[in-house]
Amino acid sequence: MLILGIDTSCDETACAVVGKGFRVLSEATRTQDEHKAFGGVVPELAARAHIRLLPRLAELSLGRAGVSWRDLDGIAVTLGPGLPGALMVGVVFAKTAAQALKLPFIGVNHLEGHIFSALLTQRIEPPFLALIASGGHTDLVQVKALGHYRVLARTRDDAVGECFDKVARILGLGYPGGPQIERLARDGNPDFHEFPVPRMEELGFSYSGLKTSFLYYTIRQGPGFVAENLPHICASFQKAAFRQLIEVCSRGIELTGVKKLAVVGGVSVNSALREMFLKEFGEEVFFPDPRYSTDNGAMIAGAGLFRLENGFYSPMSVGVYPNWEL
């Protein structure tokens, strides 16, 4: 069974072909660098870029897999969450191809796709917990079985990746902020300054307090001090941001009794995060291959393959769901 997966939820145009057993046969992804000049993703530019790039990337993905459109058994695409216009480009393309080829059309939740990203290169038997840490979401999910989820915690305000972008903006590092902060933090001392790690009574995440604390700290210290100690400040911020993720995951493990933990989403590619989680949870923690941590077509194809194998596919009348929760 072969599935073409498509993701156009934000600023990556991504396609991949995945076969039985979640075997990735090919992938083709293009990150839209044109947003850097604006300090963030411009929705209209993202949608226009998807229109331009998607047909070529779909053909490229099929070519790399050595298959044709006629060899496919289904087409999977992200329905949400994401930017409305960007999502619509992928969905219209996928529907058109599915109708023309008389193939099943499978709509996928982008967050579920991230969970499947951890299964593309390794075997993780449910039940397990999944921490989805990205620019738009920070969720802790109990995976009772594939397709059956219980959300244990969500962010109350900013997502962890969003916090990284805002802190990078405060420091004048540009967009996207995560890679810039990680690069600087490699040469820094994470114990240079202790930023606050909130602990809420109810299970959940909150990053607005850390962002505000960081802003006031840089104002108090002044630009000269910040410039001189930038690696240490970035490392200290990273430590606080990831410490909160670890503490909420620890509470989730205690609450459910489920010890296996998959850490997925764009933030999971950070090497300091992986080191901290491995130190805390040892062999019970799993990560996707770094190339599948950020948005990609393979994770959507994997989720679509699972759904199709279990008899689930979407009607052609389905729309996009920009705020779709898991």
What letter string, H or E per element, gives the SSE order?
EEEHEHEHEEEHHHHHEHEH
User: In percent terms, what proportion of residues is strand?
Assistant: 15-25%
User: In CATH's first tier, which class of the largest domain applies?
Assistant: Alpha Beta
How many domains comprise the coordinates? 2
Number of helical elements = 10
CATH architecture of the largest domain: 2-Layer Sandwich
**Which regions contain 5 or more consecutive residues with pLDDT less than 50?**
none
> Strands across the major sheet, in which order?
3-2-1-4-5
- Tell me, briefly, the overall form: globular
CATH topology of the largest domain: Nucleotidyltransferase, domain 5
Rg of Cα set: 20 Å
Describe the structure.
The protein has 326 residues and is α/β, with parallel strands linked by helices. The strands form two sheets. A five-stranded mixed β-sheet has the order 3-2-1-4-5, sandwiched between helices. Strands 8-7-6-9-10 form a five-stranded mixed β-sheet, sandwiched between helices. The mean pLDDT is 97. Strand 7 and strand 8 (148-154) form a beta hairpin. It has helices at residues 43-65, 84-101, 110-117, 160-171, 177-185, 208-221, 223-228, 230-256, 271-281, 297-309; strands at residues 2-7, 12-19, 23-31, 74-80, 105-109, 128-133, 138-145, 148-154, 261-264, 285-286. It is globular, with a radius of gyration of 20 Å. It contains ten helices and ten strands.
